[in-house]
Design goal:
The chain is mostly helical. The protein has 18 helices and two strands. Helix 8 (about 145-160) runs antiparallel to helix 9, helix 8 (about 145-160) crosses helix 16 (about 320-335) and helix 11 packs across helix 13.
Length: about 400
């Protein structure tokens, strides 16, 4: 008589926990999309519809709350230099080709084996600090004193309700934000003026836009994507879903495919990300249902409300998004706990995090410098404050 086979975890589930988890990454995504549409003149329908479709397809493919996020370095450069939509499309296509080449040649797997775990933890810690700083400085006080009060109530709700499952705490916080928006900020003329059916627009980048996208956008983005979007996300998936960790090759492949398709239809270049995965999971998501629900929200916005996208989404209070982002950041920073008991690994993680937070191209410096530092420590070429000296007198 043989044992019954173990039940596989559900691939997709649509319940209140998946719905709560669906908002675990909104504090990162939504402000970036708003800024790109309003500052760089991107087509709101294209941005929202393509972004939503990528979320839905990712949920169906992975069967876990694998996030889809705008490429942060590209978004930052677009916002500071106000580049064209064609240049953004060119950069997205170039980075898609680059990631595809790294994946099919096996170089991505090699990089994942070479980069030490403490370096990955340091990058996650640095990203968590960056996100927490953004939440506290830019989001919490967005609505003045009422915003601080709303943020404080949201934190209390998340803490008080975190151990019960009947009403998921994140869902209660999002409901509070929606109630605040309806009572304080909502103008019905905003909704009626925004309504209308829209479809994505097709974009063909010129040769010059492809070259500019490669130099200005893809080059600084690629190291960040290798460290955070691929290697760290693979590690986070193994941490949060034991026995179901996603290999870097699969993450690299879907990353590449998304960016080989999305730019042609006016979509923002995207990636996966460990912060989003931790955010989804921390807010209760356990299956691909969360990104499907999350993506459906963007599809509705893009198809029916893109004419007034910035106005519609600005109705929702930024302090609530800031609280969501802060809890995502804290969950991300706690992943470093598994290297704190080893002094050398802890020092390396701290050094990498400091590079990520404080240096230009910090992810590049942290990824390369941290890996070299670990190599030096293993060979005895470098010492940390807790490493005994070998040249002490007998």
């Amino acid at each position: 008589m043989t044992d019954a086979p173990a039940l596989r975890p559900p691939w997709l589930r649509f319940d209140r926990h998946e719905l709560a988890g669906a908002f675990g990454d909104i504090g990162t995504d939504l402000p970036l999309l708003i800024a790109l549409v309003s500052t760089c003149g991107l087509d709101a329908a294209s941005v929202c519809i393509v972004f939503g479709l990528m979320q839905v397809l990712t949920g169906l493919v992975y069967g876990m709350p694998m996030p889809v996020q705008p490429l942060k370095a590209m978004a930052a450069i677009m916002l500071t230099q106000k580049l064209s939509a064609g240049t953004l499309a060119g950069g997205g296509l170039v980075i898609g080709v680059a990631m595809l080449l790294l994946t099919v040649t096996g170089l991505l797997d090699l990089l994942a084996r070479v980069v030490p775990k403490e370096v990955v933890r340091g990058m996650q810690l640095g990203l968590g600090i960056t996100l927490a700083s953004l939440a506290l400085k830019d989001y919490a006080g967005a609505d003045g004193v009422p915003g601080y009060v709303l943020a404080g109530v949201s934190v209390v709700l998340l803490l008080v309700l975190r151990r019960q499952h009947r009403v998921p705490a994140p869902l209660a916080v999002m409901g509070l934000g929606l109630l605040y928006a309806v009572v304080v900020k909502l103008d019905l003329s905003t909704l009626t003026g925004a309504f209308g059916v829209h479809l994505p627009t097709f974009i063909t980048p010129t040769r010059e836009e492809l070259l500019s996208g490669a130099l200005l956008l893809a080059s600084p983005q690629l190291p960040l994507s290798l460290g955070n979007s691929v290697i760290a996300t693979s590690q986070a998936s193994a941490d949060l879903f034991p026995g179901r960790g996603v290999p870097v090759r699969k993450i690299g492949f879907t990353y590449a495919l998304m960016n080989l398709v999305a730019p042609w239809f006016g979509g923002v270049p995207v990636c996966h990300g460990c912060g989003g995965l931790v955010g989804f999971h921390g807010f209760g998501a356990r299956t691909g249902g969360a990104p499907v629900l999350y993506g459906s929200m963007y599809l509705v916005l893009g198809l029916f409300f893109s004419a007034g996208f910035a106005n519609v989404v600005h109705v929702f209070p930024m302090p609530v998004l800031g609280v969501v982002l802060l809890f995502e950041a804290i969950a991300l920073m706690t992943l470093v706990a598994d290297v704190t008991n080893e002094p050398r690994a802890w020092w390396v993680a701290l050094a990498v995090a400091a590079a990520v937070v404080g240096l230009p191209y910090g992810y590049v410096v942290g990824l390369i410098g941290g890996s070299l530092l670990v190599f030096g420590l293993r060979r005895g070429l470098v010492t940390t404050p807790n490493t005994p000296r070998n040249d002490a007198a007998p």
